[in-house]
Amino acid sequence: MRHLYLHIPFCHRRCSYCDFNTYANMEHRIAAYVDALCAELAMLREHIPPLPASPEAAALRPSIFFGGGTPSMLTPAQIERILQAAVAIVPIEQAEISLEANPGTVLGRDYLRDLRALGVNRLSMGVQSLHDPTLRMLGRIHTAAEARASYEDARSVGFESINLDFIFGLPGQDLAEWRATLQEVIRWDVDHFALYSLILEESTPLYAQVTAGRLRVPDDDLTGAMYELAMELLGQAGYRHYEISNWVRPHPADRPGAPPTLACQHNLAYWLNSDYLAAGAGAHGHVFPQRYANLRPIDNYIAAVQAGQRPIAETTPLTGADLAAETMFMGLRLDIGVSFAHFAARTGQPLTAVYGATLTELSAQGLITIDHERVRLTDRGRMLGNQVFAHFV
After folding, report:
1. Domain Radical SAM core: where (predicted)?
2. Average pLDDT of the residues in 225-234
3. What strands, in cross-sheet order, belong to the sheet with 374-377?
4. Who's near 291: CB < 8 A, 6+ residues apart?
5. Which of 30, 35, 70, 239 could link 234 by a cystine bridge, Cβ 3.0 to 4.6 Å?
6. What percent of the chain has pLDDT over 90?
7. Closest residue by Cα to residue 98 from 192, 197, 203
8. Is the Cα dihedral 362, 363, 367, 371 positive or negative?
9. How far is CA 204 from CA 17, 69, 128, 139, in A?
10. What residue ranges do the domains of the chain occupy?
11. For all residues of the chain together, what is the average pLDDT?
């Protein structure tokens, strides 16, 4: 199946924790950017990766993911143009089409209804917190009430697959506040949650505030307790913790040993180390044996495409060892782990021939389990995931 990432780098305001390739106060460049994005997609038609051979990856639906930035700043007409340009790469009639939406920019039911009519069938809303003072500190442009209203509007116009993003380990956040957030969103009856521990990036205003002592973040023990509380409460509510940072509601079509039906198909392609194309300023693609990154500045990106050039800033050659390592440390993030069949199909080598000694060591430490089909993280291994993944780098 084919997978395509589309980067929309515009925001009304940059959040204090964000180091993504995003730009505020650049709305006047959106029209030219959409023109360039459509032109780049025409260039990519000659670079469509082959269909994956592994059973798990072959079962995925094709996918298009509008990420950002804030894709919901685009008009429905602009999104329609982009999808028309993408149709030669991804069969959109069968595709999961995801769009990241900021509750502060979703313009009510009419906008959401137009998105749904265009074929967008999955929304990912960046809520981040239900505590209004925290939202203001983060630079978010919505309130908790507006987040709830945007979610309910999306449900009312027919979106059956909605993800909500939240961050824990935020400045001033304690376990009681995090518990209240989890209990509240569980009542919303959401399909899917992505819960991320705050990472302080050096280039961000939030990093400067914390290092200067103006804000304090929870220590590692408290942040770990927040993660464990999420596992406890979401598990009690019936959600499946199918990936280290992601939970999903069970679905009647779910099959044992397979990713959940309501999981993001595009993200599953990443975790299964599938090939995917990417377009847009700063977008990263992966077509073995290389990955590539586009030019980051909006005007540089537009100028390159207008000159008839692919806007690539750099390419990174990948070896067979890179492919094997990435297949392991990405796949182990999933609760189904890495199957022997998937590893062999993706790399052309038996898993035990490449990592036999490593698997034995990690198993003896209680960090992974191994059966006749696959390798998985244990509960302890999930808590120490980065230590496990380092064994494959």
Report:
1. 1-240
2. 96
3. 338-339, 374-377, 368-370
4. 284, 285, 315, 316, 318
5. 239
6. 81
7. 192
8. positive
9. 6, 15, 17, 12
10. 3-271, 320-390
11. 93
Q: Which CATH number fits domain 320-390: 1.20.120.140, 3.40.47.10, 1.10.468.10, 1.10.10.920?
A: 1.10.10.920
Residue closest to 325 by CA, chosen among 367, 285, 293, 358: 358
Give backbone dihedrals phi and psi of 274, rounded to 5 degrees, phi first: -80, 165
Residues facing 290 on adjacent strands: 287, 317
Per residue in 149-203, pLDDT (tens digit) is 999 999 999 998 999 999 999 999 999 999 999 999 999 999 999 999 999 888 8
Output the pTM of the full model: 0.94
213 Rama class: left (phi>0) / alpha (psi -120 to 50) / beta: left
User: Please, what sign has the CA dihedral across residues 373, 376, 379, 381?
Assistant: positive
Distance CA(157)–CA(150), nearest Å, equals: 11
User: What is the fold, at CATH topology level, of the domain defined by 3-271?
Assistant: TIM Barrel (3.20.20)
Q: Residue 59: CA atoms inside 13 Å, Cβ hemisphere, count?
A: 15
| Cβ–Cβ under 8 Å, residues 336 and 276 | no
The contacts found for 375-383 with CB under 8 angstroms, 24 or more apart, are: 375/332, 375/337, 375/338, 375/351, 376/332, 376/335, 376/336, 376/337, 377/332, 377/337, 381/332, 382/244, 383/224, 383/227
- Two structure tokens written together for 392: 């494959």
Written as one letter, the residue type at 155 is R
